[in-house]
Amino acid sequence: MFSIIVKLFVTMLIAAGITPFVRKIAFVLGAVDNPNARRVNKKPMPTMGGLAIFMAYTFATFVLLRNQFPTHVLFGTFLGEIAIILTGMIDDVKELKPRQKMLGIFIAALLICLIAGIRMDEVTLPIFGTFQLGWWSYPITIFWILAITNAVNLIDGLDGLATGVSIIALFTMGVIAYFFLTVPYMYVSVMIFTLAAAEIGFLPHNFHPAKIFLGDTGSLFIGFMISVFSLQGLKNVTFITLIIPVIILGVPITDTTFAMLRRILNKKPISQADKGHLHHRLMVMGLSHRQTVLTIYGIALIFAFISLLYPLSPLWGGLLLTVAVLIGLEIFVELIGLMGPNRQPLLHFIEGMIRGRKNHKEK
Hints:
The structure is a single chain. By secondary structure, the chain is mostly helical. The protein is 70% helix and 4% strand. The strands form 2 sheets. It has a 3-stranded mixed beta sheet with strand order 4-3-5. Strands 1-2 form a two-stranded antiparallel ribbon.
């Protein structure tokens, strides 16, 4: 264990050390984010920073910690990683269309299913029992990878935001996988902590004021890896194993879900970008760039602590906890106007109940 911790620390130093070189490569390749109406940066900023994370993680898994991982899992996953990294790098240099980017993620997800053999095989539901997914395991697994990867990709809007949120998510996943879930092998937790270590090394270069952006190279890679890691605990799906990663990734999933609802309600294409994301709304409320990022880190930590309660709760406790989280989340979303300033159905309902009770008392 001590040896693993030392190697994780070395991974962090490697990521920190190679990031300046990746920054130079980004300028050479033209992977530069120029200021515009949607961007928060005021000057051209190199992207593709995720390449440093990928390189540090790959060196750690193939060299420093090689004896920790089964060969078929390591190489099978690596093929998917290559596909997602190439997709992100091309997008950072040439800016792919949404469907082209989705195709790259789909190919990476397919490699995970077919080559690495990582997919959901069966579902166990309370009362109903266990169901074998059969061939449905492939589309369900691919959908899961597409959804999680895009969710992380969409929150990458401020310096250090996606990096910090994903570090919190990864540490939480690693702790739960190691101590609580019946993940059969320790290597899953080691892989999770290795990626977290690589991101920690990158974060000082990415935190506000950033010297390099994560880019789609990084946000797609991190989201993809988080989805793959979560699948290790979802091979046999139960209510608890399904809800835990969803809660851990509460920030990106919430932002993505309400972004889609917002665009549908406004009759706009789902893929059309806007300035209604969580970080945009917090900045409109008066928070600075750094304050917004730290606030979202805090929200991510809240989700992380909630997720730790699930393995300790009985089934009915998990159900009640989920209902409480959904209600609290809806109130928060309506308060900050994530669906739009005039869309507050739950708050209006609560206000109506309070007024009705007040009028009843006065009579």
